Amino acid sequence: MLEYDFMRMAFAASGCVAVLAGPVGWFLALRGQSFAGHALSHIGFAGAVGAALLGWPPLAGLLVVAVASGAGMGALGDRATGRDVAIGMILSLAMGCGALFLHLLTHSAMTATALLFGNVLGVTHGTLASLAVITAFSLAMLAFLSRPLLFASLQPELAEARGVRMPLLSVLFLMLVGAATAGCAQVTGVLLVFTLMVGPGATILRVGLSPALALPAAAVLALAEAWGGLALSWWSNAPASFWIAVLSVVCFLVSGIPAQSLRFRREGDAGSC
Questions:
Q1: What does the DSSP assignment read for 64-87?
Q2: TM segments (predicted)?
Q3: Residue 267, class by beta-carbon neighbours within 10 Å (0-12 exposed, 13-18 middle, 19+ buried)?
Q4: How many Cα atoms within 13 Å fall on the side-chain side of residue 128?
């Protein structure tokens, strides 16, 4: 499998994306903002198709629009009235624009398919270099934000009282989510970003590890799902994004078994008493 250059490129690209998506997804699940990752991928879709229509790299359009939209979402504030409705309306408008751009993009149906469902096997050296830069910068930014972000996520009132600038923190974090979303879309496509962006982080959060262990564990799990999906795709000839989605769902379901077993045991002990 690794004798082929396109497979080595695919493993490298998915690895870059996964080590960023896992920790970012853990914070998304912790803060209850999973919908933001889903929405940013769909909003960024319009930017990617628009860039392709203009003859620019789709990744550039996706990145710019997703990061700008993340800043806009963060500026709305966590407690803004009608925030989810506003995001939903923007998402709908962006998808409508994406549909229009697709209609005008008559010269490349493969581009549309790759944007919607991913084409990690078609990653070029230029795209891989871009993903590496995005990952390195985003991980550095996450390391800088992690302590105040964790404080604000667990105890927002106390964090605000201690002087944490909550609006700025929210803007910076969602811009980071936008960058991670742009990277994930290269592997899974905009329709399945949730599987790699939120799935591993939500699974690790469900297990209940401490933050010091949860962040690297989320990165390792995302990496295992991405590489496992690629390997299964090679052996089965099914799309890699399909297998990544399957592995993400299976891991999430399995992570809940210990908690369910403990709950049933406690209920049984209470019934016997």
A1: HHHHHHHHHHHHH-TT-TTHHHHH
A2: 6-28, 85-105, 125-145, 166-183, 212-234, 240-259
A3: exposed
A4: 17
Decide: 23 and 201 in contact? Cβ < 8 Å: yes
Can you give the C-alpha Rg of the chain in angstroms? 19
What contacts 257, CB < 8 A, 6 or more positions away? Answer: none
CB 41 within 8 A of CB 47: no
Q: Percentage of the chain with pLDDT > 70?
A: 90
Domain of residue 85: give its range.
5-272
State the DSSP H helix or E strand holding residue 49, giving kind and residue range, or none if neither. Answer: helix 34-53
Structure tokens belonging to residue 259:
């908690």
Q: pLDDT per residue over 81-90, tens digit each?
A: 556 777 778 8
Q: What is the CATH number of the domain that holds 135?
A: 1.10.3470.10
User: End-to-end alpha-carbon separation of the chain, Å?
Assistant: 58
Q: How many CB atoms lie within 10 A of CB 112?
A: 18
Three-state SS at 24 = helix
* Pairwise CA distance, residues 80 & 78, whole Å: 6
Count of structural domains within the chain = 1
**What SS3 class is residue 1?**
coil
Question: Which residues fall within 8 angstroms of residue 236, CB to CB, at 6 or more apart?
Answer: 243
- The rounded distance, in Å, linking the Cα atoms of 123 and 142 is 25
- Residue-level length of the chain: 273
pTM (two decimals): 0.88
